[in-house]
Amino acid sequence: LGTFELRTYGVIVALSFLLGLWLSVNEARRNGVDPALIQDFAFYALLGGIIGARIYFVLFSNPAYFLKNPWEIVAVWHGGIGIIGALLGGLLTTLWYCRRKKLSFRLFADTLAPGVALGQAAGVFACLLNGDSYGKPTDLAWAITYTDPRAMAPLNIALHPVEIYEMVAYFLVFLLVWQARKKYKTDGFIFLTYLAGYGAARFAVEFFRGNPAILAWGIPAAQVFSVALILVSIAGFYILGKNERRTA
Question: Can you give the pTM of this predicted structure?
Answer without folding.
Answer: 0.90
